[in-house]
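Data deposition worksheet. Section B asks for the primary sequence of the deposited chain exactly as it was used as input, without tags or linkers unless they were present during the calculation. Section C holds the resulting structure in token form. Section D is free text for depositor observations; keep each observation to a single sentence. Incomplete worksheets are returned to the depositor.
Section A, Depositor: J.P.
Section B:
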Amino acid sequence: MAKELKQLTKRSENYSQWYNDLVMKADLAETAPVRGCMIIKPYGYAIWEKIQGELDKEFKKLGVKNAYFPLLIPKSFFAREAEHVKGFAKESAVVTHYRLKASDDGKDIIVDPDAKLDEELIIRPTSETMIWHTYKNWIHSYRDLPLLCNQWCNVMRWEMRTRPFLRTSEFLWQEGHTAHATAEEAEDFAKKMLKVYADFVEGWLAVPVIRGVKSPTERFAGALNTYTIEAMMQDGKALQSGTSYFLGQNFAKSFDVTFLNKENKPEYVWATSWGVSTRLMGALIMAHSDDNGLVLPPKLAPIQVVIVPIYKKQEQLDAISEKLQPVIEELQAAGISVKYDNDDTKRPGFKFADYELKGVPVRLVLGARDLDNGTIEIMRRDTLEKESVPFEGIAKRVEDLLDDIQKGVFEKARTFREEHTYECDNYDEFKERIKDGGFFLCPWDGTAETEAKIKEDTQATIRCIPLNVDQSKVTGTDMVSGKPAKFKVIIARAY
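Section C:
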């Protein structure tokens, strides 16, 4: 039964299929009856709730407040910001009618042709246009600034090729939108949000990231600067894991959002937007998991510790339960989520396989023999190591082990990234090596032509201009054009 439960495609055989298998079999999500959409199951949603809860705390520390804006946006709003709409036009789903009716024969439901909307409504692919229309009514004076809003919501982008969590037609996310009195203040806030994202992804998801700025070609439609964090997955591909945008005054001018400054003169406000989505779930899966199932960093695991009693008679179970109860209470008091699985309809072997598949960080097993010996078996999911240890002090041992797993998972991912990051200035060599994945730190002449040729030849893109490289000291020549390099950039294939 356990073997059948865990029948996953091996990563080495087909990484993409392994990912899809794992999403389904670990009870994270399943395919919805709507093209390109998914149903996030309770176990998967519990992880998203943890992501949401922690990020929300961090936003509020910076003075951000939550709001909610409509799902449907009038088409005319998009016409006001031409550059922005260009970026989303092909992915926009459009509502054209407002009523259904029974067919003439009464056997079907049809769209009422007489119920056509006077103006089509766009299901939000992102909310800049709606929010900036609203901000015009909220902002009048410098006293109203900065305005810091965020919303947790769903968005719709009619994707042609979808994959659960990574790219779906409908997905969950947060989108922050802020208005400021000066350009410096706005850009500073965009950078602050990038730090929030980077610290969270590294500290909670245990995924190391590179902080950088997108090239002009890759930046968000309508932005002056796009700040990004890029993570490496186990197949060597990059995953954009969070973005923060300095929008300048583009949206303020499109929607005529001005404020009276301290000299009582009107000025356009300066804007940012920033967001992460359920794509983080994809990063979590692909950065850490193995051929046995999920490997979850303890901070995000819905169940951090599972305890499985081994018994034959009710009296043994009663004795085991009595022994374990103080341990359970001590762990819960320390803020650790514990599941005591005494379900007698499933065999221990099945339980072990199931919790391994679902990535529960720590497993404790206590049987009648352990009671006699004063021991308990402890297993860590990340390395699959198990040992028999003294029962005394087990709660503290588990606490320490969870901390160790969190750090260990991060260090393993960081080591992997370091081992698959290369400096390269030879284009022929690059074209060959990029096939095996990895991050390539390469000199770039700063031109869109060079960027386009790399993409055309290799399907790789400039992921970012990394912030940890002193770009003022860049030397050498572009590996494609032979022109003097202006930047050192991270190039990789990506999801």
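Section D:
The radius of gyration is 26 Å.
The chain has 15 helices and 25 strands.
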